[in-house]
Amino acid sequence: MSQPDSERPSFEPRWPALIAAVVFVLAAMTLCAPMLGGKFLAGGDQLTAGFGFREFGAQMFRETGSIPQWTPFQFGGMPFMAAMHGDIFYPTAWLRWFLPIETAMNIAWAGHIILAGLFMYLFLRALRLGWTAALAGGLAYELTGILTSLVSPGHDGKLFVSALAPLVFFALVRAIRDQRLWGYGLLALVIGLCLLSPHYQMTYYLLVAAGIWTIYLTFFDPERPTTLRWPTALGLATAGVILGLGISGIQAMPFLDYIPFSPRGAGGPSAGWEYATSYAFPVRELFTTVLPQFNGVLDLYWGGNFFKAHTEYVGAVVVLLACLSFGAPGRKRLMVALAVIGGLFLLVAFGGHTPFYRLWYEIMPMMKKVRAPGMAFFLVAFVLAVYSAIGVERLIRGDVLWRRVMIAGAVLGGLAILGAAGGLQTVAQALAPPERMDVVARNAVALRTGSLRLLIVVLAMVGVLWLIFRGTIRGAAVAAALAIVIIADLWSIDRLFFQFQDAPATLFRSDAIIDRIKSATPPFRVFDIGQWSPAGSAVYYPSYLMVHRIQSMLGYHGNEVRFYDDLLGGKNEWRNAINLGLWDILAVRFIIAPDSQPIPGFHLALGPAPTFAGTQAYLYEQDSTPSYVRVASAAAKIPDDRIVATVTDPRYPIESLVLLPDSSSVNPAPIQGAFIPPAPVTATLSDWKPGEMTIALAGAAPRESYLLVSETWYPDWHATVDGAVAPVLRADEALMSVVLPPGAKQVHLVFKDHGYAAGKWVTLISALLTFTLILAPAFARRRATGV
Q: Within a 10 A sphere around the Cβ of 287, how many other Cβ atoms?
């Protein structure tokens, strides 16, 4: 046993919260400093989609003063709110209304890394841990791999929820243990923000964890007040969750309306066991929590998933400190409650790699519609960060046996020595699938150097712990030493995932091909043929054309309207992408190709031409300008499962017929004869913008005809024909059609998201009730004291 408590006074600086916040900022800047030089932190999905989504939303808000409800620039058009295009309603979106997009996105990344540490610090202080312990736990969570490495795949929504998670636990402590009414209001606010992030799956996990924490605080917490009434505590906590759900109404209600029309709808491809268990955290990759190079980092990853752009590295230092927490006097129930949360979500993160997930999959609602259970690991990292703080507290108080430090250090050090000596390479070869053996071989050097890094970290940490244990360093020196080793350990791995880019003006700059396309009058679509090619030889990022306000036939999203997927031949397969008739129906005017090739009906418009990336590409233009709107003289109702095959048949009369599903409310006149004459009516777009268009009609038909519009159908499209309301029909599987009475002269189409119209009122009312819950106690106190 080290020196007794009386000889180890607790250290706390003069301005504890301020000093802690400064440390958290400095820790984040060890990773984010290039932002100050104008670099743009964007990787993975932010390049392929995220920047384009955010730029479009911000620019439309600046131009119109409102958030767009529809985007026509990918997959034939999609609901912007309902299909979810990132943090549309989360506070980070407000920054983009007046700051450059890249600046706002950088602030969002760095700010939430800092908030993760600060909110963990607040939670640990609410648990009555000392300043040094809370600082150490905050740093352990702020820089934990599952949180900071999210910058690599570009998953900012996951980061937002991870950063807010400690605030949920903090709010419940204040609400239940401290009996502060405003804690329930804070709970509602934070849950609402998590849902607006919008990452429902991460928030779902957080809500389950918060439920376990609520039960602990209400029934098992040894510090719960004697005046606590469990029906009141549980009722108010439930009310807080309901208010949080209400705050998210502005985003959630459009999304819930959209699910049946998305790939996650019944019978859609984004469902089922194989989908749900994809991108789990394989059990055999537990080594990576202390030695990420074991399974390889980024391009050297050889583990159980198709690829891996993040890490679950929690840090050797954090693990060592967490080992010191076990048996903490007076905190055994707390440790058990946290172990239940951490153990549960470790099993969830393992996904289908353990039998447990089948039970979770079958019992828990909505789990059949989501995938990537590995993201649940953020709650495991959360628990380990709390454990590490408790370990620091015990170390400072002097009630830790040095033998425990040596055992933990020996295990980690032994693992490091084994890896440095090449022993872990043999284990990797035994565990790796045969098709990844070449990657395992290429990873050998990284595994050795990573093991040496681990050994250095362990030796440094044991040395610091020895100095603390012996009382050689005290007070501020202890806090500084722990902060340095925690930051250095986690930074040495986190830095691998921070890939900075040039500013978007350079990253998404125009080139000769883009300039040529933009010289044509929209609307029309462009097909970057490499997006369909199995070789993945796309000339541009999927969101690149969107940034330049160019409509793409494909794109990158993952939650596009399922009927459009079906028309193109299946989600992510696009078996019908090379179909001349379909190109005409979808108004494909230009095709971009990485090499020269003959394309029937198209001529070379430009090329070989240099692209923004320094490569060369070719631009082909259709010989005759495709029609974005057209009028067919007839329609036919056929079974839904026959429409795609009929529309993609080369014999299909595109100009004179539209196909409606047999469930359509319209009953078109029977077709007379084998030949269908073209309609004597022509359609011209007189006005077109995202989510709204006006079509002028010339000529007259003796009977009803059918307008076909080359944008994706969705039930929130509304039409008027010469001022009279008309239904918008789904035609040719995925597009819009409107029945035209004889003599019709004008059609007006506008997209109005029904869920958004209702959801914003739900959000407003819930937010008002939440802020009343937060502020009412303060007003009551002021009134009682007369201050």
A: 17
Does residue 198 have a cis peptide bond before it, meaning omega lies within 30 degrees of 0? yes
The DSSP element (H or E) to which 470 belongs, if any, is helix 444-470
Window from 220-229, 690-699, 727-736 with minimum mean pLDDT? 220-229
pLDDT tens, position by position, 576-606: 999 999 999 999 999 999 888 899 999 999 9
- Phi, psi (deg, nearest 5) at residue 216: -60, -50
Please, what's the largest Cα pairwise distance for the chain?
101
For residue 330, the model assigns a pLDDT of 83
Tokens of 225: 């007040």
Confidence of residue 362 (pLDDT cuts 50, 70, 90): very high
| Count of other CB atoms within 10 angstroms of residue 171 | 27
For 708, the 3-state DSSP assignment is strand
What does the alpha-carbon distance between residue 692 and residue 229 come to, in Å, rounded to a whole number? 55
Beta strands in 192-317 (DSSP E): none
* Proportion of the chain above pLDDT 70, given as a percent: 97
- This prediction has a pTM of 0.92
Q: What does DSSP assign to residue 738?
A: E
Question: Contact at 8 Å (CB) between 487 and 30?
Answer: yes
Burial of 569 (0-12, 13-18, 19+ CB in 10 A): middle
Q: Where are the beta strands (DSSP E) in 335-475?
A: none
Distances 686 to 523, 549, 586 between C-alpha atoms, Å: 11, 19, 19
Say if CB 296 and CB 287 are below 8 A apart: no
CA quadruple 212, 769, 160, 170: dihedral, nearest 10: -40
Q: Output DSSP code: residue 402.
A: H
Residue 205 or 431, more confident: 205
Contact 159, 375 (CB under 8 A): no
Torsion of CA 66, 71, 73, 78, to 10 degrees: 170
Token pair for residue 620?
């082909």
CA distance linking residue 52 with residue 556, whole number of Å: 10
Residue 468 amino acid letter: I
pLDDT single digits (tens) 10-50: 788 889 999 999 999 999 999 999 999 889 998 888 888 88
Q: Which of 325, 403, 468 is nearest to 7 (CA)?
A: 468
Amino acid (1-letter code) at residue 21: A
Cα-Cα-Cα-Cα dihedral of 88, 90, 96, 101, to 10°? -80
**pLDDT tens digits along 370-404:** 888 999 999 999 999 999 999 999 999 888 888 88
Measured in Å, how far apart are the chain's first and last C-alpha atoms?
51
Indicate if the alpha-carbon torsion angle 676, 681, 684, 687 is positive or negative.
negative
E-assigned strand segments in 431-471 = none
Strand locations in 17-77 (E)? 40-41, 70-71
Alpha helices per DSSP H over 553-668 = 562-568, 580-585, 640-647
Structure-token pair, residue 677: 């004459």
